Amino acid sequence: SYEALLADSDIDVVYNPLPNHLHAEWTIKALHAGKHVLCEKPLALSISEVDAMATAANETGKVLAEAFMYRHHAQTLKVKEIVDSGILGRLQLIKSAFTFTLTREGNFRFVKEMGGGSIWDVGCYPISFSRMIVGEEPVEVFGWQVEGPGGGDESFIGQMRFANGVHAQFDSGFKSPSRSFVEIVGTDAVLKIPNPFKPGIKNELVLLHGGSEKLLKVGGTELYLGEVEDLCDAILFGKPSRVSLQDSRGNIAAILAFIESARRRTPISI
Question: Is residue 168 domain-resident?
């Protein structure tokens, strides 16, 4: 049982991959049981849950991190390096998508009460990626959704506006062919990432600059290795997690604003 697992003194770290609506409850229980926790994304389903989880981590002195594996990969770090170098010019637009076909209608990913919906499951990636690239939180969002059989969305389209003038657009979905990409547009160049969220050992980026197309090869490691190493560094050496709880809180706030925008059919300020 989960209770027996948490009572086991030989266990130091817990990975929480439970359905989304159980993330907060069992992460908090694990922290109070003296375990460090790597919790699958999304970290929680509300700001109050995120804050309660952060409080539990602070009170127990244990490490809590959200499992956004792509954030730790060499390809992601290279993309950020390219953007920060200024070669793209002033950032204007980030376009992205993450979709696949989910055939099991009874899957919890469709059930609204369990944190279902494509925006929670895969839309969280483009939102996270865009926020990371811009380095700010969005100030306004606008979202549209197609409701699925369990009340959660089966497809979601969203736009974000940042205070520095950058805009981001994404779509996510459970009823589309497998698609995953990010395109970062600047005043001087465009960077295309064909496989942004599940990079591997061999990866390619495409830089469109000065009328020419340049293929950039980027090495890497196994997809999940980086987040495990990051967690170990935080536990053993006290290093800050690459995905901070404040970062996770910002992503949840954006997702919730998108859902509210789709419900009200109007832009939402954050």
Answer: yes
